[in-house]
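User: My notes are a mess, but here's the protein and 2-acetamido-2-deoxy-beta-D-glucopyranose's SMILES. Can you give me a structure?
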Amino acid sequence: MLARTFGLAFFTASAFGGATHAASVPASAPTVNGTALAGWADVQKAWLAVQMLPDSGVWDRLAEMTDTFGPRKIGSAGYANSLKWLSDQLRADGLNVTNPDVPNIPTWARGPESLTLKSQPNRPNYNIPVLALGSSIPTPKSGITAAVVPVTSLAELNTTDVHGKIVLVNYPWTGYGAASRIRALAAETAQGFGAKAVIIRSATPVSQRTPHTGLSRRANIPAAAISPEDANLLHRLYNRSLIDAHKYPAPVVSLNLASTYRNETTHNLFATLEGHTKPKEIVIIGGHLDSWDVGAGAADDAGNLFAAWESIRLIQKAGIKLKRSIRLTGWADEESGSSGAAEYTKYVQSETKKPDGERHVFAIEADFGIAAPTGFGVATDNEAGVKALPLFQAAGAADPFINAKGWGAVQGGDYAEVDVSFLDDIGVPVAAPTTAMTSDRYFAFHHSQGDTVDVVKRDELFANAQAIAFWAIVASELDVAWI
Ligand SMILES: *[C@@H]1O[C@H](CO)[C@@H](O)[C@H](O)[C@H]1NC(C)=O
Ligand SMILES: *[C@@H]1O[C@H](CO)[C@@H](O)[C@H](O)[C@H]1NC(C)=O
Ligand SMILES: *[C@@H]1O[C@H](CO)[C@@H](O)[C@H](O)[C@H]1NC(C)=O
Ligand SMILES: *[C@@H]1O[C@H](CO)[C@@H](O)[C@H](O)[C@H]1NC(C)=O
Ligand SMILES: *[C@@H]1O[C@H](CO)[C@@H](O)[C@H](O)[C@H]1NC(C)=O
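Assistant: No problem, the inputs look usable. Here's the predicted complex:
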């Protein structure tokens, strides 16, 4: 994820536990500006039926897909096979599944890679775990062998002689926003100063010597990430060499990266549960289907996609018909350019021009791993979001079950995750469920070999499915013009 919402995540101690499968008493309709919420009785009717239902095994399905097909880098067999498996499952659930084309997008695939420390006589040919950054060019087959020069920021490149060297950007962690900016721009910036390659400290505050990948703008020099521990090691070796280069040889490394880069057509995944009285009004829920090519992309972002899938299953099993259509979205290519969301937004715009076209009235996306729910964040950077916020606040505050769980806090702010931010930009109200996820917990595994189903907890995954079901029912059943 690119975590457009990160930083505003609402961290409260959630009243997780105290779960009850007994139906709560329906609340009387909450009011906004002295007017009762129209359609609240329909929200309650649907939600009372949904809230009592047990987990249908969502964690096991997440484990099955990620164990069977592995990570889902856009353009890979893992993506294509997961897309097919999930589409088949959703069709078997009775949903209307489509896989529209996302044409001609760049797809990058990792090849064999290594980083070897060459200069330390007592640690000959010491191998440092390394991951190329996405869209990096490969090195020549013989690799690039050069002295390492550390900097702590991209600005420091202006005052450091990096010509012919491998630049190490060993910045202090101040948050994901700053780190991901360095990751995106390091190669392009260092190439301007004549560097041969760039290596960055991985974007994480917590590490057990694991590198984390992520997107780099494609430049004319290769770009890779190493663990924070190894970035500090190379930096210390360099520092000591400044004291006595004879006694402490300056670090020289040999970098070998292979990769392919070509344009291909890929596909989004949509699965629609048709609405009863307003089928052309679409409420989107979901996450992105693609992932990085290491780990299994279980938390980023299959977990959120599967939580939303489970929400739809709950609604189906409750035997209720919602007014509006609920569309599960598995966006393609969030990690490498968001072309899936951009392509869909063109469709949304063309539908809006048709008199009988689909109207996208609300879009929910979660992309910050799976943790205990705390509430809902409505993006208030468009007019429809500002209008929707008090309605969701009233709904969250009024529902007994949601309140008993501690999931009812609704805030406004920058809550548009990357894919739905395209819809936000054209005026669709968008939102993200909020959770107790923290930076230390999430970025420890994010974009690394550590993102496997083990980092997703069963109870938290199902709790997210329940919470998303509630917010989707509010979006579907309230008799308001969202847009
Ligand atoms: C409530 O009243 C305020 C002030 O008149 C107005 O701006 C807002 O749109 C109203 N909200 C709703 C949901 O009607
Ligand atoms: C399924 O969805 C597509 C695209 O929204 C639509 O064209 C088609 O008519 C739907 N099919 C059914 C059986 O509802
Ligand atoms: C590859 O895809 C990008 C983005 O869609 C496009 O700008 C570029 O022209 C494409 N290249 C080729 C060779 O088709
Ligand atoms: C480096 O200096 C150039 C010109 O002096 C300036 O345009 C650029 O923004 C600086 N780069 C950084 C990363 O500070
Ligand atoms: C390297 O030396 C600089 C300048 O003394 C210092 O600020 C920095 O903390 C040192 N880095 C490491 C990793 O020891």
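Residues 298-317 form the longest helix (20 residues).
User: Great, I'll file this with my notes.
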